[in-house]
Amino acid sequence: MKIAVIGTGYVGLVTGTCFAEVGIDVTCIDIDKNKIENLKKGILPIYEPGLEEMVVRNFEAKRLHFSTSLAESIKGCDVAFIAVGTPPGEDGSADLKYVLGVAKEIGENMSEYGVIVTKSTVPVGTAKKVKAAVQDALKNRNAEIEFDVASNPEFLKEGAAVDDFLRPDRIVIGIDSKRAEEFMRKLYKPFVLNGHPIIFMDIPSAEMTKYAANAMLATKISFMNDVANLCEVMGADVNMVRKGIGSDPRIGNKFIYPGIGYGGSCFPKDVKALIKTAEDHGHKMRILQAVEDVNEDQKIVLFDKIAKHFKGDMKGKNFAIWGLSFKPKTDDMREAPSLVIIEKLLHAGANVKAFDPVAMHEAKKTLGEQITYCKDQYDTLIDADALIIATEWPEFRSPNFNVISKLMKQKVIFDGRNIFDQEEMKELGFGYYCIGIKTK
User: Fold this and answer.
1) Which of 31, 34, 214, 285 could, after both became Cys, cross-link 278 (CB 3.0–4.6 A)?
2) What is the average pLDDT value for the chain, to the nearest integer?
């Protein structure tokens, strides 16, 4: 088979590369000439474990190609994936101009039957708009070419995307023709040899499934953060509560870790989009609105603890921050809670030094030179009045506390990810603040 993937962002690049990995001829297309030239050299626009080596290997094997020309690349394709961005508008709705622009260009250039697949996260009803855009383009060129539209939402976790794609727990595909189903079944056959299912359904249901999945996971996070805040008030230990409820198979132990809120490219955008979609159709998503409200409040919980400890006077104080990305194993800074904390610290007149294993380059695009970027985690601690842990990178879990004690001006830790033990910190002489456990 021959496929095209339009868009070389996070979803598009992982999708195209993983299809090439199983022997499929793939062309990844992007209008950004610099990005395409870099990809040909093995320079990726994102950090994702294992992806760089896979891109280089498949490009050298001539299974993976990169191009700026959709017109040339679309000819002869069996399947074309639309994987361009759907940025949120000011009202929270998904902006479909890039998706529909690509659909129009496909219609202007396709030469034979193919399946056009929305891989981007798009609201229910988008496939109909894609189909109409392609039909209009074909009509304008007086061309009668059959095609089908399908929805194939992605369920990739940043930091584990390659493994998620190669060994999926399920593949959801929305189709409205038997011919499209046959093409998609053939395309995904190499990925379901582990016995996990391809779930075929109607297109609107597939579009909704992606939003419902992310909304459910975001709900679990906000629920646990809400419970954590109550635990502090009541003197309970949220870590014990988490273990107690997580052992119930109906609840499970995933996405119930308290913290400083969710971020990234998916949860914030998709929750907002689903709320807006419901509003547009006269329905109010009351639970999801609460999920979003709790998450926004949670991003300032740690700062409130900092302000209380320093009695509101943070001017001239030095703060070390470990972790900038919204989660470990990614350089994604979109909606990262660290940005909210840093902004508030700077507004209060504090000095900030930070370290992140991979995200400092991305952080500079947002923060510029407002903060100091350090060579390692210990460099941030020199003369620090407090340490703030914003991302739970594995290398932060077992640091040398003797070194930390010697470097810091004040032995105070604000742990937004609960990676340390409160009793151990107390024995080591640290003032320790975390989420969901009352400070002793």
Assistant:
1) 285
2) 95
Looking only at Cα atoms, what is the longest distance across the chain?
A: 78
Q: 366-389: b or e for each residue (b if 16 or more CB lie within 10 Å)?
A: ebeeebebbeebbebbeebbbbbb
Tens digit of each residue's pLDDT (9 = 90 or more) over 371-427: 999 999 999 999 999 999 999 999 999 999 999 999 999 999 999 999 999 999 999
Class of domain 299-433: alpha beta
Alpha carbons within 13 A on the beta-carbon side of 272:
19
Decide if 2-200 and 299-433 have a common fold.
yes
What tokens appear for 426 in the block? 């107390």
Q: Which two tokens stand for residue 169?
A: 């727990």
Alpha helices (H) in 285-380, listed in sequence order? 286-298, 301-309, 337-347, 360-367
- What pTM was estimated for this model as a whole? 0.91
pLDDT per residue over 262-309, tens digit each?
A: 999 889 999 999 999 999 999 999 999 999 999 999 999 999 999 999
Per the structure block, which two tokens stand in for 32?
């950004």
Residue 231 a catalytic site member: no
**Which one of 2.60.120.10, 3.40.50.300, 1.10.1040.10, 1.10.3720.10 gives the CATH number of domain 211-297?**
1.10.1040.10
Please compute, for residue 218, the number of CA atoms within 13 A of its CA located in the half-sphere on the CB side. 30
CATH number corresponding to 2-200: 3.40.50.720
Measured in whole angstroms, the distance separating CA 87 from the mean position of its chain's CA atoms is 13
Q: Give residue limits of the domains in the chain.
A: 2-200, 211-297, 299-433
pLDDT of residue 329: 93
Looking at the predicted structure, is the pLDDT value of residue 183 above 80? yes
